[in-house]
Amino acid sequence: MKTDITERVNTLRQYLRRNGLWAFIFPSTDPHQGEYVPAHWQTRQWISGFDGSAGTAVVTLTDAALWTDSRYFIAAAQQLEGTPFKLMKDGLPETPSIDEWLCEKVKKLKSEKVKEFIVGVDGEVWTEAEINALASALEKADIQLRTDLDPAEELWTDRPPIPLNPVELQPIEFAGESAQSKMERVRQAMREQNADHIVVSQLDNIAWLLNMRGSDVHCNPVFVSHLLLTPTDATLFIDSRKLTDTTRNYLQDIGVKVRPYETKSKLTKPSRPTPNPSLVGRGAVTTSAAELSAPLPTRERLGEGLESLVSSLKSIKNEAEIAGFRRAMIRDGVAMVRFLRWLKPAVEAGGQTELSIDQKLTALRAEGDLYRGLSFDTIAAYGPHGAIVHYEATPETDAPLLPKGLLLLDSGAQYQDGTTDITRTIALGPLTDEERLDYTLVLKGHIRLALTRFPDGISGTQIDALARWAMWQQGINFGHGTGHGVGSYLCVHEGPHQIRHTWKPAPLHAGMTVTNEPGIYRAGKHGVRIENTMLIIPDGETEFGRFLRLEPLTLCPIDLSPVIWDLMLPDEVAYIDSYHRKVFEALSPYLSEEERQWLKKKTSRNN
Q1: 81 in Cβ contact with 63 (< 8 Å)
Q2: How far apart are the C-alpha atoms of 26 and 491, rounded to whole Å?
């Protein structure tokens, strides 16, 4: 494999010379800017061998480097060893950005009288905002940027095809609103912004708008396509082989035309002559540069933000979607209770590993009605592995579980009526004082955020500190966000809103889902994270405006055995008791008598 990577880099350099390029940049994105990328567009992994979810590879005629964040420092170092790539630890003060690294290389080469430097990127998988920022940065060193090449198209001989999985309908009983109604709401926004078109490229937005689902992307029920909306028409750009007679007739009934996916470059041609400049509603943050370079009536009036508006509409769940979440959480909670009841005796009996418990939990979830798969790859991280925030066990790293220490278990499922995301950290046996302290601080942070009452429309950044306050007082912090939206049988990570320490201006409103997941991670020792999916609900109105609060949707006991109760405040203890009463009342009707007795014990502080 290492030899293959070296050969690919050498072949790429021949390609660069033939095309007059000095370097090429491979990101971890696709034309739809999704979190999970279909294999067809995993060019960064193809050229470098690094298989993490985030990273960017850069190859010049003489050098090669890969940037990734702290989640993957260890894995990337192992995977890049023996290849031409140097690991660049993104986020560290001493690590230059990609444009700084390229500019520095050019400065040295200019002294050797090299005249022209052109860097290539595939404009299909970069947004216009990213292209503009990169071009501006490279211009400082007189580096030109070319966006119309995809070397993988020529060099990747066994490149996987674009997925052709069939598309299915999402029943109105789960969607809660017709596709025609959703498209009309978007068109109303178009009229308000004087926009002639909107190109929707984010796959979850398309699936939500059309009330359709697919299986083209790992763990996400979406399908590869683009959608063009005008005030009077809608066109879905998709490979027609993905459509059945049922879905084809449905699209016709709701007024959506079907065109080949490959014709997406024509998305922005004006549909009719107009005496006024045409405003095309596309977000430069999420639309690929290739689409934005297609003919436009007037480039100066390119609209931005309408795809973000679709995301905002999707983020506020209707009554049917909320009801679906509640049903899905009961099924998921039953599976979690059965798993947790099984776990400790199984560990004490011996023979369990991170991978084996993942398989057990997945099998229990699969027994539930409307189960459609996992919502993300399970993180079953024992002991020191828990300190790796997005650790995924492999046969090489699979750790045996022992009746001591902490197990961090972050998992979720896709049900046709809802998506789940839950983390529980479980004491498998005796703990150190440090493990108990960290667990208690994380629990305090989780509860403090859950208890918060806040004004309608504020940003998640404005309440993020509440989840961190207790640990800050001990000089402890965590680097990831505290919460993200969750889709309705869609992507488990859904925007635009977040709860995180870095500024995210998207407002919080009633009807949004958001996770609550503070954590503490000690390298080489352990990790702790406690996560519930929450629903933002109204909490009254005063002379100062409307207020909101968080209601937990997730139904699963929280392990109380590690808690240092002397550190818990009265309202925090009351919250735990109230939450556990809710868990028991909701789940007990679906459990056997033995399971009910186990749950009753685990939801009581007296046991």
Answers
A1: no
A2: 24
Is the CB of residue 177 less than 8 Å from the CB of residue 183?
no
Residue 79: strand, helix, or coil: helix
- Where in the sequence of the chain do the CATH 3.40.350.10 domains occur? 2-155, 168-315
Distance of CA 59 to the CA centre of its chain: 27
Domain with CATH 3.90.230.10 in the chain: 319-602
pTM: 0.90
Under-50 pLDDT residues of the chain = 267-286, 292-304
Q: What is the DSSP string of 19-44?
A: TT-SEEEE-S--TT--SS--GGG-HH
Helix, strand or coil for residue 403?
coil
3-state helix, strand, coil in the chain (%, to 5): 40, 20, 40
3.40.1050.10, 3.30.70.20, 3.40.47.10, 3.40.350.10: CATH of 2-155? 3.40.350.10
Non-local CB neighbours of 157 within 8 Å, separated by 6+ positions: none
Strand order of the β-sheet with 234-237 is 256-259, 234-237, 226-229, 197-200, 280-281
Element of type H or E holding 420 = none
Task: Give the CATH fold of the 168-315 domain.
Answer: Creatine Amidinohydrolase; Chain A, domain 1 (3.40.350)
Which CATH number is associated with domain 319-602? Answer: 3.90.230.10
Contact in structure between 278 and 303 (CB atoms under 8 Å): no
* Pairing assessment for the beta strands 280-281 and 197-200 based on DSSP bridges: parallel
CA atoms within 13 A on the CB side of 501: 13
What CA–CA distance (Å, rounded) separates 434 from 443? 14
User: For residue 211, which amino acid is it?
Assistant: N
Q: Give the per-residue pLDDT at 271.
A: 34
Token pair in block for residue 25? 């940049």
Question: Rounded to whole angstroms, how far apart are CA atoms 386 and 425?
Answer: 9
As a whole number, the mean pLDDT across the chain is 91
Backbone angles phi, psi at 367, to 5 degrees: -75, -15
Taking a C-beta distance cutoff of 8 angstroms, is the pair 168, 411 a contact?
A: no
